[in-house]
Each structure stands twice: as structure tokens, then as C-alpha cells.
Amino acid sequence: MADYPLPYSELEARIGYVFADKELLLRALTHSSYSNENRERGLLCNERLEFFGDSVLSLVVSEYLFSHNRAMREGELTRLRASLVCEGALASYAEAIGLGDFLYLGRGEARGDGRHRKSIISDAYEALLAAVYIDDESRGGDGKGAVAEFILPYVERELCKINSSTDYFDYKTLLQQVIQQAEGELLEYVVVGESGPDHSKTFAVEARLNSNVIGHGEGRSKRAAEQAAAKEALALFGVG
Prior knowledge:
Largest sheet: 3 strands, antiparallel
CATH topology of the largest domain: Ribonuclease iii, N-terminal Endonuclease Domain, Chain A
Number of strands: 3
């Protein structure tokens, strides 16, 4: 097995799980940029694990929310889940265990601060969840229990930050999930106006689906305006 950037036992201690199959853990930590630069070593990257981990994450979080929020309606549960599994939340979970320090990255990604890039560490976190699931299942467990034991403390902390009366929810992620149910749909956000002085601008943004306007929003930042536009668009789909 290849050497690790840091002893793998340190990462196992941080997540509270010891792998029987260390190669599986290695794969979860290997970014495509590293495997591409080291093809002669035959290393597999973590993309397939990331794909599976996304479903594992959704299942564990969905089951938790379903059992702990019996009065919530489906739309509220969906919206809450989206906030707990979005890229930003996953990146915070990954940062809490210092996952970026253990990743195998190509030279370019490593120089470009890839160990702290949200897209990279959130994807690796999903891959790690899949690796835990598969490894535990191979030892006679159900996979899901081991993942839940690892991730739910972080999910619960994230839940403590969420107030349902605020706009904390990631409406953009939720809208993307709704749109992805149909293939070939193109969702984009377009800035259609700016007003106010440079130090206090207000942005106007349209959410467009296949060039058709489905939502409009305004905010003090482009991100806030996009969230507002996504929130309005979700009403068209009966979610909100």
C-alpha cells in the first residue's frame, strides 16, 4: 500500500473508525488529479466512492430527520436536509476532522490550496462515508450504523445553527436537486441589475430554467440574491 501523507491511524482516530481494508481508505483519500499523475501505480481515485457516499449521506440524514422531527411536513424536511448535505455543510464537517491534510492531490491542486477547497474536501468527505459503509458491511455490519455513528454528531451541531425562521436554508441546492429529477435541464442564475453605492450595492438576479425565468431575487450580495431567486422558484414546484 502507498504511504500516506500522514499516518492513516491518525485519521481513523479522528473519525472513530478503524478500517479493515486500508486500500479502501486510501482510495477515499485519492483525488483524481493525483491518480492521473501516478497512472503507473494503478491508484484508483475517489470519484466512484463519492457517488455512493452521496446516497449514503442522504439516507442517514433523511432517516435521522424523519425520526427526530415527526411534526415536520415533507417540504420542510427536504429543505432542512438540503442545508445539512450541501457543499458548505460537508466542507465544514471535513474541516472539523482536518480531512484536507490527509488527501492525495496532484501537484497543481496541492499548490493551489486544494486541501482547503470546499469542492475537493466535500467530495472526499462523501467518499470517506462510502468507504466506512463498505468496510463495515464487509465485516458483517449494516454499513449505515457505522456511518451514522461517525457523521451524526456533526449533523447535530449543524442543526443547532439552523433557525427555521431565517433564510439559512440553502435554497439553491434544494432547487438543483428538484431540477435534476429530469435530465437535460439547464439551471442558471443571471444578474439583471445592480443599484446603490459600491459599499452598499443591491443585486437583482433571475433564476432561469432552460432560459425561462422561474424566480427573481434581490440581495446585498450576488449569493443572497441567488438564494432569494431560488426560494421564489421553489414555490413553482410546490416546495418551500
